[in-house]
Write a structure and sequence with these properties.
The chain has 305 residues and is α/β, with parallel strands linked by helices. The chain contains twelve helices and nine strands.
Length: 305
């Protein structure tokens, strides 16, 4: 069989997305049923940058499936520096059954997948975060029971999370409204792909620079940090540019009644979102975090079983 990688939402079909969501639901409901499914299998977590949720959810998820996970941080490998991506891919393919890569450059991830003979899963790159997006739409389906007629409003930075989230939403028929500051418009390649998918699924996708307009009639409001890892030098400028994009009590008044609040974490409380919102009864941020493990277990089962 030809190996399957998960590098972005764009490289999996709608059918495969629904298979992952359905399997994630089964895995979450009955952990014991899948306890030995990947017995004898092993994965390597090749990380160029630190992580909380991605590392723990993949490591514990693999253990719960009966397999083994090994963490390989920047000091162990130095992929792309001390050792070439090609050599890392070829060597680790001899030892492991799968690779989870967390890279700065998406090109490094693609290079790793090109040379690896085992499945490669994107644990985050500068372009995409497919595992996050899949767990997000899983959480939305869990809360609403459907995607039809539901509107997700993403307000904030046009980053890797948005690239994956808008593509996933467009594919499965979830309406999405996106508001970013001027000068921070979404990646053209990701936006064009999302528009194409929306044309097929019937989902509405809107782009603007007006956070209040995006918040109106939202069933879910989603934000992320304004300054991501590697952007620290831009922090002062970004804080000025994102003025007015904070998710606070006044912004929430514009949304539909009982609008859910989502954030992929880590959150910079008091910047992109206030404590009163992130800690409200409408916040599902910890459900999102938990569901990372269930969906990633489903992904591991699909690619490694």
């Amino acid at each position: 069989m030809k190996k399957m990688d998960l590098l972005s939402i764009g490289n999996i079909s709608n059918e495969e997305i629904n298979e992952i969501l359905d399997l994630g639901k089964k895995v979450k409901k009955d952990k014991a049923q899948y306890a030995e499914t990947l017995k004898g299998k092993s994965i390597g977590l090749v990380f160029q940058k630190p992580s909380n949720r991605t590392r723990v959810s993949f490591e514990i998820g693999m253990v719960q499936l009966g397999g083994y996970a090994i963490y390989l941080g920047p000091s162990e490998i130095g992929m792309g520096g001390r050792e070439s991506v090609k050599d890392v891919a070829n060597v680790l393919s001899r030892y492991l059954d799968g690779l989870i890569a967390r890279t700065y450059k998406h090109a490094d991830l693609e290079d790793l997948a090109k040379h690896a003979t085992v499945p490669v899963i994107n644990g985050l790159s500068d372009y995409a975060h497919p595992c996050q997006a899949l767990s997000d739409i899983f959480t939305i389906k869990e809360k609403f029971g459907t995607f039809k007629g539901i509107t997700l409003s993403y307000i904030g930075d046009a980053n890797n999370v948005l690239n994956s989230l808008m593509c996933a939403s467009a594919k499965i028929g979830l309406n999405i409204k996106i508001a970013t500051p001027k000068g921070y418009k979404p990646d053209k390649r990701a936006a064009d792909a999302a528009k194409s998918c929306a044309a097929v699924s019937g989902a509405r996708i809107e782009f603007s620079h007006d956070p209040k307009s995006a918040a109106k009639a939202a069933d879910i409001i989603y934000t992320d940090v304004w300054v991501s890892m590697g952007q620290e030098k831009e922090a002062k400028k970004r804080m000025r540019d994102f003025n007015g994009f904070q998710i606070n009590d006044n912004m929430m008044k514009l949304t539909n009644k009982n609008c859910l609040v989502m954030h992929c974490l880590p959150a910079h409380r008091g910047d992109e979102i206030t404590d009163s919102v992130i800690d409200s009864k409408y916040s599902v941020i910890y459900d999102q975090a938990e569901n990372r493990m269930h969906i990633q277990k489903a992904i591991l089962l699909k690619l490694l079983a």
